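User: Structure please.
Assistant: Input sequence and predicted structure:
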Amino acid sequence: MSHSGAAARLALLPLAVAAAAWAGSAAAEISIEHVTITDNSATVDTGGALFLFGSDGGTDVVLENTLIAGNTAPEGPDCSRNAEFGVGSQGVNLLGIGDGGMFGEDCLTGPPDLVGTLATPIDPLLGPLADNGGETPTHALLQGSPALDAAPNQGEPEDQRTVARPQGAAFDVGAFEAEVADLAIAKSDSADPVPRGGAFTYTVEVENLGPGAAVDVTLVDTLPAELTFQSAAASAGGSCATPAVGSSGGVVSCSFAGPVGVGETVSVTIGVGVPADAVPGSVVVNQAMTASAGGEPDPDPTPNEVEEETRIAAAALSLAKTDSADPVPPGAMLTYTLTVENLGPDPADDVVVADMLPAELTFQSATPSPGGLCATPAVGSMGGTVTCTFAGTTGVGETRSVEIAVGVPADAEPGSVINQASAVSATDDSAPAVTTESTLIAPSVLEVPTLGEVGAVLLGLLLAAAGLLALRRRPPPARPTGWSSS
């Protein structure tokens, strides 16, 4: 037989029930106030909790803010009486099944009392008989119990555990007054934005703001379907049921057995992965909620649910290329300079620049800016691809560059050569940044030898000698007519 009472005068409850059940008794009225009677049974006949029967006047029972439910008997499991006995009501009582059983007399008939029937019994949502504080075991009212805050503001000032009444908006029905526990939940992510192919953690904290202890706190976190579950670790006293590692989304459900005192905090850390094909720039939403399975009323349930938004990083790249000479003659050297810039809005991870050299040119060298590493063709080979990787993060507005030296063969045909390059980042899967540079190879020109100083002097002497020789060979001028010699 399981029962509990809120006042010393109710400690004789088993005797009161027995007296009421004694056929033919003629005793004074029995008052049962703020009592919980449950888990009792009768194997024959009727009346697992209250059995009121007599033929020459009976004892009336008055119930006040009392809970009678969850008892068993072949008939009338919670209360059974004949017409000689009366069951009075003061305040609000909860009677799981009010049918009178074999006598056909209902014990309570309804409002303001909460009365169920055999067809539709009322489940009071009671916890097992346990140490919930105080000197004796009690049945706690669980979350959602119809007995919570159901009685008017009158009755015993303390429950069976000496907890002050009322804790909520009104008295609870029965011997247990659920303490008010205001739970507040908060959540944070370890990174935002997060890169594709990476991992991060959610931290969820639940604090009991009081004024009473919260019993058997639960925390349920619904992971975004865009992420994969990796791990869950609860603080002391907690245990979690989780999805399979690597599964998409799912629910992490954690419970913390026992009381969480005023000002105490429990927490869960959840590790998740970001798939490599996650959509850059998209936002994933994580929802979490908390409650106390002990049934304590929460005066402000608003903060019992929380959402955390986390963005998948996205970064747009721009790529520019210049050549050191245009046009360039055969046999000369040419340098391409490639510059990639992160336009944001987020840092770019693992930037890769690829340059497809023209087949008409020979590779000579590739020099990346700090942090870069290049894979190149063999020196002297025609064309090929230079691929330079800048591992890690390139911040918004930050640039990376590569200088690539090439040679123009002496027998290169005149005309344009096309050099195309691209830049990509692990942070974005949109079309890569592409740039093209066209460089003109100039036609070959016949070289004219030049004279040094000595050659110039010799050339001058040679020209002077030629002039003198020409003068010597010129015939004398003709004499004018009429002139004579003496």
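Residues 16 and 83 are 19 Å apart (CA to CA).
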